[in-house]
Amino acid sequence: MGLPQLDTCCFVFDLKSGNIIMGCLNAVFSFIITIMMIVVAASIAPIQEQAFEEKDLEAEAAMTGLYVMSIILVLMFLAKFCFDVLFVYGVVVESAKIVRSYFFMWSVFFFLSIFTFFLNAPHYDVGTICLEVFYICLNVYAILLSHSFYKQLNSREEV
After folding, report:
1. pLDDT in tens, 17-57
2. b/e per residue, 18-54, with b = 16+ CB within 10 A?
3. Which keywords appear in this protein's UniProt record, sorted alphabetically (predicted)?
């Protein structure tokens, strides 16, 4: 039993076009979330300094943890952006190795992203949470598309 195999993207596009579209959307959203996490990290720093000046150790520890997780998310989404661009290139040139590598990378990244997101979700504003949930749903569909395209590329190579 494995992942379901799709024949088209959104019942309209073929798998190659769909993967290019989804890869570009993922790259754009990865870039937007990277910028949002930079803003979150920048907005946490003054609060952390204020807690340090007030000698509130509990608030300082919480803000330091949130700041570190925000920086980790910035780095993760920046790496994801680079992988998204590489994935679009791999789909255009129909490289099964790049598509397979992206599929495995995104599976690992997906679990890391979910884990860090739900740890920090109570501290984020509504806009960040909505964008992150939409981004996760979009990428679940992208995982299915990339897996289906990889299977299609392998079936072409065997013939």
Report:
1. 999 998 998 899 889 989 988 998 888 777 777 777 777 77
2. bbbbbbebbbebbbebbebbbebbeebeeebeebeee
3. Membrane, Transmembrane, Transmembrane helix
